[in-house]
């Protein structure tokens, strides 16, 4: 759905429209990282919960939501002047009410669903809210609403999501704060909040620099490239990560199972994402034209640069989730703080080379923090570095084979002036054939992690057959 929506909106809106909203979203999401000082995640990770934990978590979320909404409402003019994008002021104010006024009410309800591992409900709520919100955005964009089409979609999505979560798991509406329970939740929550905040600043810090130095149009180009590349890690974090965090939390005292799970998830990530990254780098010009339209050629180079980091971003999420579940929340917070400094500092240095320069420094920052978080996860799970690296070898070999097959094919087709859609289709087919063929060989031989994967696929087939 996200790719479909992006394809439609990329043709209905301009890069400046995206830039205006990107400026507002980057500010709101950065502040949103401290919406509940990590208490929501503490509700998931904590072994035992009392009713007073829940009332305290709800009260703190509401109070902080009100305070942060007011902060952004009155600070919006200053932020607009910083960016040099005065059109973003009203957007910042409206989104502040959306992000804090609505989300703070539903935080406790959503976290209790995650703690209970009720992912069927989470999937239904999130998919329903996003689909309806995106439909509203598309309708408003086609009607000429400009950047407000995106704002309308955010508003509808959050309103539906909040209503459904609160309706399924109504929070206790008492606004009293039990200080003893608050301290217990903050023991984990403060580190988690620091991680959330610094991660968001790192994620959007380069947007701050690009928007301030290069304006709304270039920010629109850069933010589109970045959003496309972070899509796999966002999906991993929103879907797989939400499952892994409570699952790893239950295993936090079983290092052997943590290590095995960490290696296997890393193996599957590499098997899927490394060949996919290789194909994306090859077909970047055609992919951008298909998704965004003919007027987005400036996105191609930063898109290719950032494509190198797709697996690294996902491993960053994986390592951080496992380390936090095992209790190393402060170490993860320190890693993300360093990440934030490198992203913003690198962007300030490389902005002189435009959005491509910022893409290079951001890629370096992602690489650094990914290695850091994976090392933390290896430490808390006792997984050895050689074992972790071997899990990536099959994916790396397949990615090299994809490049060897797809790059010359794409070059020949472009030289013959074949339609861009034909180039895109031919390269995707070639990459899939190479990848699936090599994976099939690995599954048939059944050595190492391929043996485990073959067993899991066999179990899945048997379950489907029995149904």
From the spread of the alpha carbons, the general shape counts as globular
Mean pLDDT comes to 84
Run of helices and strands: HHHHHHHHHHHHHHHHHH
Number of helices, where a helix is a run of at least 4 consecutive DSSP H or I residues? 18
What Rg, in angstroms, do the CA atoms define? Answer: 22 Å
Give the strand tally.
0
Profile the largest sheet: none
Q: Name the poorly predicted regions.
A: none
Q: Which band does the percent of strand residues land in?
A: under 5%
The assigned structural class equals mainly alpha
**C-alpha termini separation:** 28 Å
Q: What percentage of residues falls in helices of 4 or more residues?
A: over 70%
What does this molecule look like?
The protein is mainly alpha-helical and 467 residues long. It has 18 helices and no strands. The protein has helices at residues 2-12, 15-32, 39-45, 51-83, 88-115, 119-142, 148-168, 179-250, 255-282, 284-292, 300-307, 310-325, 329-350, 354-381, 385-390, 393-415, 420-445, 449-466. Helix 4 (51-83) packs across helix 8 (179-250), helix 5 (88-115) packs parallel to helix 7 (148-168) and helix 9 (255-282) runs antiparallel to helix 12. The longest helix has 72 residues, at 179-250.
């Amino acid at each position: 759905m996200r790719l479909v929506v992006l394809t439609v909106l990329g043709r209905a809106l301009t890069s400046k429209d995206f830039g205006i909203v990107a400026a507002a979203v980057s500010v709101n999401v950065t502040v949103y990282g401290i919406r509940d000082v990590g208490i929501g995640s503490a509700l998931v990770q904590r072994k035992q919960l009392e009713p007073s934990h829940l009332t305290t978590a709800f009260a703190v979320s509401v109070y902080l939501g009100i305070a942060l909404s007011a902060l952004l409402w009155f600070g919006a003019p200053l932020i607009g002047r910083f960016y040099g994008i005065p059109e973003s002021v009203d957007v910042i104010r409206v989104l502040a009410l959306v992000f804090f006024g609505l989300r703070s009410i539903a935080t406790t309800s959503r976290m209790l669903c995650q703690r209970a591992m009720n992912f069927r409900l989470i999937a239904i709520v999130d998919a329903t809210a996003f689909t309806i919100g995106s439909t509203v955005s598309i309708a408003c964009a086609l009607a000429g609403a400009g950047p407000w089409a995106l704002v309308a979609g955010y508003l509808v999505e959050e309103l539906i999501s909040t209503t459904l979560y609160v309706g399924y798991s109504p929070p206790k509406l008492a606004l009293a704060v039990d200080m003893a329970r608050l301290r217990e939740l903050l023991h984990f929550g403060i580190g988690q909040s620091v991680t959330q905040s610094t991660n968001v600043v790192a994620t959007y810090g380069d947007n701050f620099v690009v928007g301030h130095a290069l304006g709304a149009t270039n920010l629109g180009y850069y933010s589109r490239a970045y959003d496309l590349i972070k899509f796999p890690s966002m999906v991993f974090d929103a879907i797989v990560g939400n499952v892994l965090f409570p699952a790893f939390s239950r295993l936090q005292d079983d290092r052997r199972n943590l290590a095995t799970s960490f290696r296997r998830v890393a193996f599957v990530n590499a098997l899927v994402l490394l060949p996919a990254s290789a194909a994306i780098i090859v077909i970047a010009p055609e992919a951008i034209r298909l998704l965004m339209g003919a007027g987005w050629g400036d996105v191609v180079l930063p898109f290719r640069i950032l494509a190198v980091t797709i697996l690294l971003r996902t491993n960053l999420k994986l390592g951080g989730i496992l380390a936090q579940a095992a209790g190393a929340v402060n170490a993860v917070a320190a890693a993300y703080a360093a990440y934030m400094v490198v992203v913003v500092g690198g962007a300030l240095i490389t902005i002189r080379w435009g959005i491509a320069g910022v893409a290079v420094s951001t890629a370096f920052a992602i690489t650094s923090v990914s290695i850091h978080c994976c090392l933390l996860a290896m430490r808390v799970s006792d997984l050895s570095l050689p074992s972790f690296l071997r899990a990536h070898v099959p994916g790396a070999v397949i990615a090299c084979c994809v490049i060897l097959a797809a790059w010359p094919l794409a070059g020949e087709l472009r030289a013959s002036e074949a339609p861009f859609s034909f180039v895109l289709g031919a390269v995707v087919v070639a990459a899939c054939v190479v990848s699936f063929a090599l994976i099939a060989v690995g599954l048939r031989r059944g050595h190492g992690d391929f043996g485990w994967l073959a067993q899991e696929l066999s179990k899945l087939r048997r379950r489907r057959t029995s149904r």
